[in-house]
């Protein structure tokens, strides 16, 4: 069973630019990139300007990975949310157990754990210590 921690970087509409920069600066390789326009259904609050923003990207840098997404709609990213920790497993039930454990005792669910176009189980939670985690289940191909 897979279990790893990955830095997750949230940017305000500059993820594509950042990815191009990191490809040059640190030899990053794009493993996955999904825009909001690639998603089967964009949230109703999104408009055509959001289509090209990155919903989820994964880059490989040497033996490590970085994950990215854009904050849609020019919305400001809250202090402490620019860089979060992504916990990755390859088992939806394990991911759900981790998500539920982190949300206990005053943790705050920022995005409920559910299937997404880029993951069979994903959620965003800030634990009782104010640390934000994105719990991500890798799709089995």
Describe this structure in words.
This protein is of the alpha+beta class and 141 residues long. It is 16% helix and 43% strand. It has 2 helices and 8 strands; from the N terminus they run βαββββαβββ. The protein has an 8-stranded mixed beta sheet, with helices on one face. β7 and β8 (132-137) form a beta hairpin. It starts with a strand and ends with a strand. The mean pLDDT is 87.
Could you give the distance between the termini?
A: 15 Å
Q: In the CATH classification, which architecture applies?
A: Roll
Q: Could you tell me the strand content as a percent range? A: 35-45%
Strand order of the largest sheet: 2-3-4-1-5-8-7-6
| Secondary structural class | alpha+beta
CATH topology: 2,3-Dihydroxybiphenyl 1,2-Dioxygenase, domain 1
Using only CA atoms, what is the Rg? Answer: 15 Å
* Discrete helix count: 2
Features:
141 residues; alpha+beta; 2,3-Dihydroxybiphenyl 1,2-Dioxygenase, domain 1; 8-stranded mixed sheet; 2 helices; 8 strands; 16% helix; globular
Write the layout of secondary structure elements.
Layout: E1 3-11, H1 15-25, E2 29-35, E3 54-61, E4 64-70, E5 83-89, H2 92-103, E6 108-116, E7 119-126, E8 132-137
Parallel strand pairs: 1-4, 5-8
Antiparallel strand pairs: 1-5, 2-3, 3-4, 6-7, 7-8
Summarize this, please?
The chain is of the alpha+beta class and 141 residues long. Helix content is 16%, strand content 43%. Strand 6 (108-116) and strand 7 form a beta hairpin.
């Amino acid at each position: 069973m897979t279990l790893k921690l990955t830095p997750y970087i949230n940017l305000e509409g500059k993820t594509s630019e950042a990815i191009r920069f990191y490809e040059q600066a640190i030899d990053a390789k794009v493993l996955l990139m999904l825009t909001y326009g690639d998603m089967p259904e964009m949230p109703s609050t999104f408009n055509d300007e959001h289509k090209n923003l990155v919903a989820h990207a994964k880059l490989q840098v040497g033996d490590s990975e970085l994950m990215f997404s854009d904050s849609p709609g020019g919305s400001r990213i809250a202090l402490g949310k620019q860089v979060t920790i992504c916990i990755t497993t390859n088992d939806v039930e394990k991911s759900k157990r981790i998500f539920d454990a982190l949300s206990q005792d005053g943790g705050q669910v920022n995005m409920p754990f559910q299937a997404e176009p880029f993951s069979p189980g994903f959620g965003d939670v800030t634990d009782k210590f104010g640390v934000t985690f994105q719990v991500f289940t890798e799709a089995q191909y």
